[in-house]
Amino acid sequence: MSKERIQISEALYDIMPSDYQDLVKSATYGKEDRGWKDIGTSKELIEQHSLCAGCPESMAFRYILASLPNPEDTVMVGSTGCTSLVFPMVAVHNIHSLFGNQNAIASGLKRALSVRFPGRVKDVVVLAGDGATVDIGLDMTLQAWFRQEKFTTICFDNELYANTGGQESGLMQKGFVAKMAPVGKLFDKVRLPEIARESGCHYVVNCTVSKPSLVEKVIRNAVHVAREIGPTYLQLYTPCILEIGKNSMEGLQEMRDSEKPTERFAYKEYISEPAKQLLAELAAKDKERKAAAKQLAGQASA
Amino acid sequence: MADTHSIIGTKNKKGQTYTDTWKMMNEAPRTPSFYTGSEVIKEAIRRASCDVMIAYPITPQSEAAALIGELFAEGYIGDYFRGESEFAVMSQCAGASFGGARVFTTTAGPGTMRAMENFPMWAGARLPIQMIVTCRGINSPLSIQPDTLEIAYLLNTGMLVWHAETAQDFFDWILKGYIVSEEPDVHLPLALCCDGFFVTHTKDVVNLTPADMCLPPYDPYRSPVPCMDMECPPVRMMRDPFVMKSNYISYATHASWQQEIWAAVERSRKHTIHWLNGLVDTENTDADIVIVASGTAVSQGREAIRMLEDEGVRCGLVKVKALRPWPEEEIREATKNAKHIFVPEFNVTGWLAKEIRATVPNSQRVHAGPHVCGGMTMPPEIIVSEIKTALGMKTFSMAGRGS
Fold first, then answer.
1. CB proximity under 8 Å: A 41-60 to B
2. Could you tell me how many CB contacts below 8 A there are between chain A and chain B?
């Protein structure tokens, strides 16, 4: 799809919802170099959401949607949980079907799009919570990686089941007292980033969403590597402020505290050799393009 | 957007001609071929212009699922792979269907049960996936033998459910099934069931359509819900934007959507009648005794009728082809003269007899049986015996059956 495809017939313009008019006027579909800096000057691909006030997940959604390199040809796959409250407000096609089957849905979807649109870019991005990714859906998460399915898996890790009211999850820290962990969780936080690397992911990052520029970088890398090489995995800390007893304005600080070098969300990445090569090529092209643009701008002002 | 009509007469990459389905199924020459049921599934899919097939091993469908892999290797199918479990496979099928592909899969028994959560989702998301169900036992202790109990669980999923008697039914219905399933006013998944082993693993003469003709491709833009490929605006679009609120409007939204699924099942009735030449086949329904059955129980019933005729007992037959949509009117009409209705079944609970009891007036006429299950065969003699016993006729007990 391109921005031309979403144009509104003049005769119907005034009866279209204003948020759709805004998407046509000022969304960044098809814009090269789109990123988090477009927030505030363009129509975002997320409309009002129904998450809790101050939820870091809502920040993550905004940065991710601003950073997808190719939203006009991206289909997202979600799962049941807090994210599924947001997806109806997202302006790329997205699928919710069941709880935990997101990587199976994405496998079928990516293959169908490859059969139907040979030679065209159609990115698939999975975005689900930690319960969906690591607990109920773990086999499908891993099997998609084993099969080298070419899509990105993003896990919003809030270290518990938020939407059902704060129950223990596999990504919860050991010792944390929660519903269904009445004496504290008895085993360690599952080390999915390491498992992802061993399972064949070509680009794996574990971080928080405190810095929009970082989110932009890892999203772009993950989508490009998935498109060209194979599966990629991002584990992003989006704390559930409600369930860990924080106030609305404390989410950002919670993420900053958790990304210190000795903490569990200290920035960690793994990049396979073919992925390193691809990212170097993309960076070189980017540099070239920026230099050319600068030169052009210099000529124009001279 | 693809126009399926303009493509008729053109060739696909394998040199098959996209053919008007009615002509292909009803007018094209047929070649008698001696094949197993599994091979027949392969031959039907060869002609089905299928985009994606996803496989998983479980007896008795493994052979068919592997044979379709051969079709993929030959270039007849867009993509094919082995999933990791039936639950995953049915979700992978959903993903491919959401993305606008014509999708095929096969399963059986415990696999059907493992995948069950997907089926109401398929129907609710209006995904016209076709799934072959080669029925086998589902209960513990483990059994791989024929048993149709799993069909009972499929009846309330919102899927179309057909029950094939023979390999010939299978061949024709796989192809016709896609046409019915993909109608814009239907657009629902189809569970095409057969009795495992009896149909899949026995050889039969099947009249095949020409191998150089195939179905027109699926056009996902005829769907009543948008295809998830970012090709169609408006872009803020989720398939089935469910409303997770606790208020009357959200309940009403969900209720009306469920009603719409069942209205779509109902709307499939006219297409199914058109393509299958009726939801039921009937013979001699003016007789006092009528056997109503589906699947291979129909074949055994037919043989029992022949045996009873030799003894001067006249008996009619109703072959139920479609279970969803349910042929309520047809069964009432076909049994209106019957004093006794017998329902032989390959399962322990007698789900078909329960459906028929709920359908016909004077339901005390319905004799739920005979039943066999757990892989037992159903000799026509036990149907004869059941009927003669009910009529008060003398019947010889059969050794080892405890009767």
1. 47
2. 160
Distances (CA, A) of B255 to B124, B251, B258: 12, 6, 5
Residue B255: partners with Cβ closer than 8 Å, 6 or more residues away? none
Q: Containing H/E element for A205?
A: strand A203-208
Give yes or no for a cis peptide into A88 (omega within 30° of 0): no
Among residues B105, B121, B110, B118, the alpha carbon closest in space to that of B54 is found at B105
Does residue B139 fall inside a structural domain? yes
Q: Which CATH number fits domain A32-271: 3.30.365.10, 3.40.50.970, 1.10.275.10, 3.90.76.10?
A: 3.40.50.970
Residue ranges in B277-339 assigned as alpha helix (H): 296-310, 328-334
> Into how many domains does chain B fold?
2
DSSP readout, B24-82?
HHHTS--EEEEEEHHHHHHHHHHTTT-SEEEE---TTTHHHHHHHHHHHHHTSSSEEEE
A96–B239 C-beta distance less than 8 A: yes
Chain A: nearest CA to B55, how far in angstroms? 12
Nearest beta carbon to residue A111 from set B79, B121, B229: B79
pLDDT of B386-402, one tens digit each? Answer: 999 999 998 866 555 54
Q: Cα distance from B235 to chain A (closest Cα, Å)?
A: 5
pLDDT in the model for residue B87? 98
- Residue B101 is assigned to a structural domain of this protein: yes
Note the pLDDT tens digit of each residue in B267-286. Answer: 999 999 999 999 999 999 99
Alpha-carbon Rg for chain B, nearest whole angstrom, is: 22
Q: Is the peptide bond preceding residue B325 cis, with omega within 30 degrees of 0?
A: yes
B242, part of any domain: no
The pLDDT tens digits of the residues spanning A181-207 come to 999 999 999 999 999 999 999 999 999
Interface predicted TM-score of the whole assembly (ipTM), two decimals = 0.95
Does B121 share its domain with B42? Answer: yes
Q: Is residue B125 part of a domain?
A: yes
CATH of the domain at B212: 3.40.50.970
DSSP A133-162: IIIITHHHHHHHHHTT-SSEEEEEE-SSBT
